[in-house]
Write a structure and sequence with these properties.
Elements: H1 3-12, H2 17-31, H3 39-52, H4 62-72, H5 77-93, H6 96-108
């Protein structure tokens, strides 16, 4: 999915602050190496995160985004462990129903439409 396609998708499906938090938590899971998504799905989710990271979330702000930016420049095992801890903390702050609803919404609203793989977002 190109940046323009993603912008169009977001225009049709604006994310709530709670959903921005969900996208942030998924990005942390991608970075800690525990995400079971396909490489294509990870790229789409990273693109989604990039498109919404400057929007307000309910729980996560600049500290989480700065951590993600540092981790994307390269991660040591120590950094992966720290990201894992932050991701687990993030996931405890978002209720399971909220995260499940976010995952269902992005699938149902076609975020992964036309992608080579539409494996479930973990």
């Amino acid at each position: 999915m190109t940046a323009d396609e993603l912008a169009g998708w977001l225009g049709a499906h604006p994310l709530s602050p709670s959903e921005v938090d969900c996208a942030t938590a998924v990005m942390l899971k991608i970075l800690d190496g525990k995400c079971k998504m396909s490489a294509v799905d990870k790229r789409v989710m990273a693109g989604l995160y990039d498109a919404v990271k400057d929007r307000p979330g309910l729980r996560f702000g600049d500290d989480f985004h700065a951590l993600i930016a540092r981790a994307r420049r390269g991660t040591s095992e120590e950094m992966k462990n720290f990201i894992y801890e932050k991701r687990v903390l993030a996931e405890t702050m978002i209720s399971r129903p909220v995260m499940k609803a976010f995952k269902a919404m992005i699938r149902e609203q076609g975020l992964f439409a036309g992608m080579a793989s539409e494996e479930e977002v973990e």
